[in-house]
Amino acid sequence: IGDAAAMDQGLEALSLDDTLAFVRGFMLFSMLANLAEDRQGATTNLRDDLAMALERLASKGIASPQAAALLDSALIVPVLTAHPTEVMRKSMIDHRNRITELMQQRDLGHVETPEGDLIEQAILRQIALLWQTRPLRRERLYVADEVDIALAYLRDIFLPTLPTLYSRWERLLAHRPKSFLRLGTWIGGDRDGNPNVTAQSLQLALERSSQAVLIYYLDALHALGAELSISTELAGTTDAVARLAEQSGDINVARRDEPYRRAITGIYARVAATYQRIMGRPPTRPASVVGEPYQSADELRVNLVDIAHSLSQGGAGLLATGGALGRLIRAVETCGFHLATLDLRQNADVHLRVVAELLRVAGVEGDYQKLDETARIALLRHELASERLLASPFATYSDETRSELAIVHAAARAQVVYGSGCITTYLVSKCESVSDLLEINVLLKEAGLYRPANSGTAEPSATVMAVPLFETITDLESAPRIMRAWLSLPEVRAITDARGNQEVMVGYSDSNKDGGYLTSVWSLNQATQALAQVFKEQQTPLQIFHGRGGAVGRGGGSSFAAIRAQPEGTVQGRIRITEQGEVIAAKYGTRASAAQNLEAITAATLLASLETAAIAPADAARFSVAMDTLSREAFHSYRALVYETEGFKTFFRQMTPLAEIAELKIGSRPASRTKSDRIEDLRAIPWVFS
Fold first, then answer.
1. How would you write 455-503 as a 3-class SS string?
2. Spatial distance between the Cα atoms of 305 and 677, rounded to a whole number of angstroms
3. What pTM value is reported for the model?
4. Which of 38, 155, 509, 610 could lock 212 by a disulfide, CB 3.0 to 4.6 Å apart?
5. Which helix (H) or strand (E) holds 184?
6. pLDDT tens track for 345-355
7. In the chain, what are the domains?
8. What are φ and ψ of residue 576, in 5° steps?
9. List of residues 6+ apart from 662 with CB closer than 8 A
10. Which residues are catalytic?
11. How far, in Å, CA of 275 to CA of 294, rounded?
């Protein structure tokens, strides 16, 4: 007690400057302790990898070829989002990541860094930098800043890491799986509650991503040209490579007997021309010959595969199946000309207003918002069957409608420039009905991203899929009914059959804010199981997109454990997961940590897809009944506390750092949807963050 009193007295005597230094010291202490814990966790989770998954499956009679077959049809996508939960400046994160790398080197038994510095001294230098670096931003981030932050991870971490992972997996599987691990992002396309995201920010995000991946290809081709010095005097080539060499325009006599170098000179010129077509200027290292731009990334892939095939035929198989060429082929297969697929997202309420205005101005329906669900569906389906567009360049529309139309038109232009893989999904937040999804297709049709059956095609088609996001407890409960009705529409089935699946997104943070942690988790479990059953009945593959990660209230924790915990039959080799804010820096701050986490989600997806449940059906039924009861009681207690207790709103705002979080310059999106201070109007991310 005496010590506590003395401490209180000492704290009260601190000046403001001393108090700030004191608090800062504990902040850095906590940060360094977390780094040490994370490093310890990384060493203990090293077996959350593909080799472990294959061993586990083999022990249950599931052979490696079966696992390889599943991966050939799999799709695993970490999706970077700009949810404002990363408080630290990038400078602080960079110093922190450097300490992590140094600890990893030390764990490997190294005493010195590759530069010759003692590791212990290098760590102390980074700590000194942390101590003297301002931790928080002074200016609020713009969307362009968020794009650049995400791009740093995509370009510097993911892009070089993915091909390396595939090389190892090929050895483990004794098979070259298809490129199932892809990259996704919301940054520049997520407009839900963020008026700062516009058609211009969408274009900016796509252009910078394309620039980054094309520069990567150019650098890789430059290095590959230096490597493949093979002479026709010592090895032959296939006709395909001979043609590439002849068509390259490379007439340098010094390379007359080096067809691979000449072929790569031509390929480099075509990628450089592609760069100029997209960016409007030549790359920093211009081509030495003139080339035609590639029309698609697949054309580039075919040329590279021709080189690999020729090397194999010429007795240089090791150069063909791995190394720089193999990694480049993987990168092209994975990233195309767009690097990461950008999702569009907007709130259903916005679509309702925009479609209502389009219908009213076009003279189709005077008050669409007053129609019941049956009438809305009938009207929207009629519009989707017609080639006639609703929008007119001669009509006057609200700013909101003009903005939404600009987005879909920008998406259509982007698919032409960067390839159809740059944007494939349009998420509708707060999805509560089939009409919410049909409204998306109506907007897509305005830009040619949805085409009716009589537009020269036998069936309706769409290059962008409407995807529901079910967020609240009620919406999760309604999801199976909505999707059954959605999949029963013939025009929808034509699109899902062509795409090979229908995606559904489930929200963790909003369901937590709406119903509390226990009810949220159980509702997500029940909804995904019910959705899997509906999709099985409809004979349509289901792909679930999990909006999770970060805080515990948003499903935070180990992605490996979370994926393996998904209900049986809900993964099936296909999963997308959001990666937000502080999670991105923690999981993907270094190439080593990125490789470990990407392999962990791959191994978990494989196990969740092929392992059968260990619990007996009777036990599962009893567990379900018990959880239903617990969830119901928890829901009522939570709602009574948060939404019905007088004074809780004031208590919550005074006892949590919500106000301080709102003042932090950590994102371009406002903390609340409106100026209201009601809990209902507070965003779910600040809720779980605070």
1. CCCCCCEECCEEEEEECCHHHHHHHHHHHHHHHCCHHHHHHHHHHCCEE
2. 58
3. 0.90
4. 155
5. strand 184-185
6. 999 999 999 99
7. 208-335 (1.20.1440.90)
8. -125, 145
9. 671, 672, 686
10. 83, 513
11. 9
Between CA 420 and CA 27 the distance in angstroms is: 46
Q: DSSP letters of 71-95? A: HHT-EEEEEEE--S---S-HHHHHH
Q: Per the structure block, which two tokens stand in for 347?
A: 């709130």
Among the listed residues 441, 436, 423, the one whose alpha carbon sits nearest the alpha carbon of residue 470: 436
Nearest Cα neighbor of 599 from 40, 36, 153, 51 is: 51
482 Cβ neighbours under 8 A, 6+ residues apart: 431, 432, 433, 434, 468, 470
> What does the alpha-carbon distance between residue 213 and residue 498 come to, in Å, rounded to a whole number?
28
- Strand 502-507 relative to strand 425-429, pairing: unpaired
Is 341 exposed, middle or buried, given 0-12, 13-18 or 19+ CB atoms closer than 10 A? Answer: buried
Q: Where are the beta strands (DSSP E) in 301-388?
A: 341-342, 344-347
Place of tokens 């490789």: 595
What region, left, alpha or beta, does residue 499 occupy, with left being phi > 0 and alpha being psi -120 to 50 degrees? Answer: alpha
What distance in Å separates the CA atoms of residue 539 and residue 532, rounded to the nearest whole number? 10
Residues 475 and 430: beta-carbon distance below 8 Å? yes
Burial code of 348-365, b = ≥16 C-beta within 10 A, e = fewer?
Answer: bebbbbbbbbbbebeeeb
**CA distances, 402 to each of 197, 351, 405, 656 (Å):** 13, 12, 5, 39
Place of tokens 């392999």: 599
Contact 584/85 with Cβ under 8 angstroms? no
Query: What tens digit of pLDDT does each residue of 399-450 get?
Result: 999 999 999 999 999 999 999 999 999 999 999 999 999 999 999 999 999 9
DSSP string, 188-246: TTB-TT-TT--HHHHHHHHHHHHHHHHHHHHHHHHHHHHH----TTT----HHHHHHHH
**Would you give the DSSP letter of residue 373?**
H
Q: How far is residue 544's CA from residue 504's CA, in Å, rounded to a whole number? A: 5
In a 10 Å sphere around its CB, with 0-12 CB exposed, 13-18 middle and 19+ buried, how is residue 621 labelled? exposed
Dist CA 549 CA 581 (whole Å): 9
Secondary structure element (H or E) that encloses residue 466, with its range: strand 465-470
**Is 608 within 8 Å of 76 (Cβ atoms)?**
no
* pLDDT at residue number 139: 79
C-alpha closest to that of 684 among 578, 547, 523, 561:
547
Write the single-letter amino acid at 520: S
Q: What percent of the chain has pLDDT over 90?
A: 71
Pairing of strands 461-462, 450-451: antiparallel
Q: Tokens 């007439």 label which residue? A: 251
pLDDT value, residue 551: 61
At residue 672, the pLDDT reads 59
